[in-house]
């Protein structure tokens, strides 16, 4: 069943810089993380949320997992 999540608009324009991709160099690791998360099966996280509920739509799980995977404050031991 399709879920009605809010999806991030990574090419959304802002005042400065005009494109979110301008904040990062082309060789930044976040591009690798975004690609890796886009290949993951996140259906288990999506299935937790009911369809047709009242109120705001849930945020899609991919951006949350991308943020966690790209957190640079986590240091390997």
Automatic annotation (TrEMBL):
Organism encoding this protein: Humitalea rosea
Protein name: Transposase-like protein DUF772
Disordered as annotated region, ranges: 55-77
């Amino acid at each position: 069943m399709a879920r009605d999540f809010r999806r991030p608009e990574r090419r959304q324009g802002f005042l400065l810089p005009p494109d979110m991709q301008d904040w990062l160099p082309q060789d930044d690791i976040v591009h690798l993380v975004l690609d890796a998360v886009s290949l993951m099966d996140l259906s288990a996280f999506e299935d937790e949320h009911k369809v047709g509920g009242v109120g705001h739509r849930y945020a899609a799980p991919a951006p949350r997992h991308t943020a966690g995977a790209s957190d640079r404050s986590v240091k390997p031991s």
